[in-house]
Amino acid sequence: MEKLFKLKEHNTTVKTEVMAGITTFLTMAYILAVNPNMLNASGMDSGAVFTATALASALATFIMAFWANYPIALSAGMGLNAYFAYTVCLGQLQGIDDPWKIALAAVLVEGIIFIILSFFKLRETIVNAIPENLKYGITSGIGLFIAFVGLKGAGVVVSDDSTLVALGNFGRPEVALCLIGILVIAVMNHYNVKGSILWGILITWVLGIIAQLTGWYVVDPDAGAASLIPSLSASSFIPPSISSTFCKFDFAWIGSHVSEFVVIVFSFLFVDMFDTIGTVIGVAEKADLLDEDGNLPRVGRVLMADAIGTVAGSMLGTSTVTSFVESSSGVAEGGKTGLTAMTTGILFLVALFLSPIFLAIPSFATAPALVIVGFFMASSIKKMEFDGDLADAVGGYLAFLMMPLTYSIANGIMFGVLAWFIIKVCTGQLKKIHPVMYIVCALFIIRVITIII
User: Fold this and answer.
1) Mean model confidence pLDDT for the chain
2) 423 within domain boundaries
3) What is the dihedral of CA 335, 340, 343, 347, to 10 degrees?
4) Rounded to whole angstroms, how far apart are CA atoms 405 and 407?
5) Of 407, 398, 417, nearest to 89 (Cα)?
6) CB 78 within 8 A of CB 37
7) Is 430 among the domain residues?
8) How far apart are CA 124 and CA 259, in angstroms?
9) Position 227 confidence tier, pLDDT thresholds 50, 70, 90
10) Rounded Cα distance, 300 and 110, in Å
């Protein structure tokens, strides 16, 4: 362990690192319940998604552990999975058979581009070209969007012909239990309970089982209300097959819809790019891993682990794999090396044999996790500058506003970037626009043209 991870150099021990890895896993294991539920909405088999998510998470985290030697774990990114399912599959590709195959192809291409950008060290340049306000506005907007997805999935928010949206029926168990779950996680966070989001999901699920046993929650498969009690036979603990999602790419559609596909890929790139950089730098700063100039040593390896994880995840059958901010919980427990990440990766492999538990968890039990994660992401709004440059302020604001209101992360980014660019041009600030942003705006202008046509 000393040779692999240089524990003495980082002033840590095997026990400390292992406990930190367990803590990180507990705080991010909710993704194994959330991701299958979310991608199932796009038509994917939830069992296959569960296995793909666990395998891709373990692989990417092992690369981070052994190659970069950092205490950072990776998995299918929140926000990116919502974009995959609701914006791409149920939005831009609505009406197409198996739209998730096209979305997986987009994730594959995104990952390959990331590998190239990381190899030539261009990724940081692109991230630095994006105005801070836009970054904060996009992050906050994604938070609102995934919270809205969770509330809608649990029936707390419903559609309404007069007001577009309205409150759901509080007499329904799904609605009541979702709201209870949100409060449970919030209270646990107050008391710094490790794995509070995972515990909140499990408690909400158990309350749902009690509701089923007492007759309040009625099992009706035709209405989408499946039994909440898992099958615990010996054979059920065999990890679900990924045969239905493994390398299931649809490249035929892409040939006749190149511009639309480019926008889909670019939106994945745009969100994942600065999200990863921000997460990695934030976790590294908390672990005191930055050098005296504020730079992260071996950052290329960190970004490459993310890129390889994304390519592997697309081949296995899951959405974009990225560094998880929950890694900071392990760092808070003393994790400083790749041994922390290795421990988390091993636990993802162990979780493969717990599929009956994770797959029996209903969407109303995972909805509180989406709402709370959305809360943490939306808090970035307080970092926005509203009194400074109007282009930055309005661009960030529109990104924040339009994501939940148009039910699309891509639309939010498009509105924010184009508004920022146009205001910059109209106010004579051409010299302040980074050359990279001209390319970004050109892609979104193409997107607007395709929408109009």
Assistant:
1) 86
2) no
3) 70
4) 6
5) 407
6) no
7) no
8) 25
9) confident
10) 17
Cβ atoms of 299 and 70 within 8 Å: the answer is no
Range of the domain at 47: 7-224+244-378
Q: Which long-range contacts (CB under 8 A, 24 or more apart) does 441-445 make?
A: 441/417, 443/262, 443/263, 443/266, 444/263, 444/413, 444/414, 444/417, 444/418, 445/418
- 4 vs 1: CA distance, rounded Å: 5
Which of 363, 82, 99, 407 is closest to 224 using CA atoms?
A: 363
Q: How many domains does the chain have?
A: 1
Query: And the tokens for 375?
Result: 């809360």
Question: Which residues, including other chains, have CB under 8 Å from residue 290's CB and lie 6 or more apart?
Answer: 281, 284, 296
- CA end-to-end distance (rounded Å), the chain: 59
Q: Is residue 20 part of a domain?
A: yes
Q: Could you tell me if 10 and 71 are in contact, meaning their C-beta atoms sit under 8 angstroms apart?
A: no
User: Do 316 and 246 contact (CB within 8 A), yes or no?
Assistant: yes
Smallest CA-to-CA distance from 137 within 443, 391, 353, 307 is with 391
How far is residue 398's CA from residue 134's CA, in Å, rounded to a whole number? 9
d(CA 285, CA 276): 14
* DSSP designation for 239: P
Q: Which tokens sit at 381?
A: 């709004």
Q: Which two tokens stand for residue 334?
A: 């003393």
214's tokens: 């007492």
The answer to whether residue 437 sits within a structural domain is no
Ordered alpha helix ranges (H), 214-337 = 252-256, 258-286, 299-316, 327-332
Please compute Rg for the chain using Cα positions.
Answer: 21
Question: Residue 107: what are its φ and ψ, rounded to 5°?
Answer: -65, -40
Residues in a beta bridge with 166: 158
> What is d(CA 64, CA 69) in angstroms, rounded to the nearest whole number?
6
Provide φ and ψ at 387, rounded to 5°: -100, -5
Give tens-digit pLDDT for 271-296. 777 667 666 766 676 667 767 665 66
Whole-number pLDDT of residue 321: 92
Give the predicted TM-score (pTM) of the model: 0.79
